[in-house]
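User: Hey, my collaborator sent me this sequence without any context and asked if I could get a structure. I don't really work with proteins. Can you help?
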Amino acid sequence: MAASLSRPCFISLHLPYRQGWAQHLANTFRFQPVAVRETPRVRQLALRRGSAVFLVNERWVPASASTSSCDFLYDVDPQPALGTASNVCFEVDDVLGLCKQLQSQGCSLLVPPTELRDDGGAVTYGVVSSVVGNISHTLLDRSRYQGPFLPGFQPIQGAPSGTGDGIEITHFDHITYVCPRGSARAALDWYQRCFGFHRFLLNPQEKPAEGYVLGGQGVGMLLLALQSAQSTPAHGCKLVFAESLSQNGTNQVDTFLEQHGGAGIQHVGLCTTDIITTTRALQQQGVRFFTPPTTYYSQQDKVEEIRAAGQDPHMLAELGILLDTTVPGDKGQPGTDATESPSQEYLMQIFTHPIFSEETFFLELIDRRGALGFGEGNIRALWKAVQVYMDQQQ
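Assistant: No problem. I've predicted the 3D structure and written it out in structure-token form, which is a compact way to encode the shape of the chain:
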């Protein structure tokens, strides 16, 4: 029987010596620091926006100075040579039982079930290794804990609340993994078998046996997606697996694998309830976003589609936001038929530039107006925008 995971508790990022991102995440993206933990070698800082929490791990000593298992709570040390998002923590009900179950299925247990407590109560956690690159998963039971974050961390008093700044981010929408060619299906199968994830169809055109394949016009990519068995399509965090199929030279998927040193988390989608206001506010803070091809907004069919959704094509073009309508009633489940809905279902998206110096990890804003999957037009436009940026960096 597969493990049963709930929503993500946090996503952990690791930075090399003398590289930091926590201040940028707080000052530019306006995530609120909520708790901190420090040792002589590392600092772990939790930052939150809505229910989306990043745990940023920064090193105070060079890589040659070894860290111990005591340095990183609720995580393991990926020994990064560059910035990397390497751990996704899921809340579970029975850490001990799930760890035993996963071990029996051949999963590597990096941290055995461990209990930690403070005045706020107790938590139990364990860490298992994923089959994808440097990714690990913390399994956490905090049902007996009432503190602000987790035992071992000190709450940060007086941090700004972030209310009224125009940035409306609610939760993690999806996490996209980049996999080497030929390995995405195996990763998908592993998460289904070991973690109990269910298949999610990204688009009505996707065939479950084949996945969602984008070809032509310089694009060659396979996309596969899953969602937690305990989550609903509207509110759960999906896992998306991307694999390059392009025969036209290096693309952004291949570049990620090369610069990251292997498979890993390429980007995290942050759900927003107001992408226009949020994008404008983040731009004013200094966040840089990819610019879609101008032809995206000049196509008459796209202009009419944007207007039919009740949005202003000129405003979306000014900000660089993409919009795709979807088949009404499409719920992303294999074997289900779309049913007519009285309202227009669509989504809007925008990508940031890479967060670190390498062309690896970045963030996405996604505003879902009834649409649960991902529009093909958006995927193609985002692919082209990223590709143009990469070509300019050469």
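In plain terms: DSSP finds nine helices and 18 strands in the chain. You can pass these tokens on to your collaborator as they are.
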